[in-house]
Description:
The protein is mostly beta strands and 314 residues long. The protein has helices at 109-112, 221-226, 248-254, 269-272, 305-313, and strands spanning 2-6, 11-18, 21-27, 30-37, 40-48, 51-59, 65-69, 107-108, 114-117, 122-123, 150-151, 159-160, 172-175, 182-188, 192-199, 209-217, 242-244, 260-267, 276-279, 284-287, 295-298, 301-302. The protein folds into two domains: 2-163, no CATH class; 172-313, no CATH class. 10% of the residues lie in helices and 37% in strands. Strands 1-2-3-4-5-6-7 form a seven-stranded antiparallel beta sheet, with no helix packed on it. Strands 13, 14, 15, 16, 18, 21 and 22 form a seven-stranded mixed beta sheet that branches. A hairpin with a 4-residue loop joins strand 1 (2-6) and strand 2 (11-18). The longest helix has 9 residues, at 305-313.
Amino acid sequence: MQNTSSQDVKRKVYHFYCKGRAANQLQEDTNHTVVQYEDQLLAQQSCKDGVCTSTVLTVDQQRTVLYRAGQYQSQRPLVYTPYGHPSQHPGWLGFNGERPDPMTLHYLLGNGRRGFNPVLMRFNSLDRMSPFGSGGLNSYSYCLQDPINYQDPSGDSRVPSYSRLPGGSAGNLSRQKNGPGKIFKNVDPVEHQVTFIVTTGKTETKDYDFMGYHGSSERYKRSLEAGLDSKHNSPQVYGPGFYYSPNLKTAMDFASSQRGYVYGVYGKISKLEGHIDQYKGGDYRVIREKGYDYVLVRDFIQYPVDQVALEVRR
């Protein structure tokens, strides 16, 4: 929950979030509630002085509100600049499904922690993960100047836009000459390669089941293999937790742009029941903190040889 003060009416506004997404706003006799299924926006209900109106939302794959169908809504579609400045006031939710400030139309990312100005195309405050972390050298940059292919719901670091993930091309896979079992994906022949290692002979995970893939960077190997730790969590699209996917292509898209690495995720399935949330039809999976003790992350992917060959052919 976030508590803010609205300057125009001098009243407190309470914002409630569910798994990192705006869910409800209360302001004395006025409230707004979002209706959604998993991460897909469906509708919005607004109530004032005991009178409620419902609005059906038309959104794209990035959750950007394009049209609102309701009794008192404008019939004109919403149009945005690449950085999210709308052609008209978007209402409670707008670009990438984020909540704009009603006075400035700046988007309050990271559950209201950091404001983004779509007109100036930059954040209003410094990035705590810059210049040496995933925020990049420019501490005020939004998505490293690539708002088409990325978004930044946490206000800390960019993540691939949904349209780039499931169903997108995984690029060409080839076997590296100087390392049996090591496979990489060339996205750019000079700057970008994603590496992962496949094996069928490791024994240290014999009491754990292979669950999927985690896309990250090679520099986080020591930290990941030491065990999951909540203090390393940063705000993400679906709230705090450890993110992985059963889809190799999705993990490769999430791997860092330089020295990208895909890790194997192993767990004790019976112990993890109730501690894993699924999104995007199961393509995104989030292990919550209570399940961390039953998970291993390793720099190799262990499954049968025929399954490895199938993934490579894809």
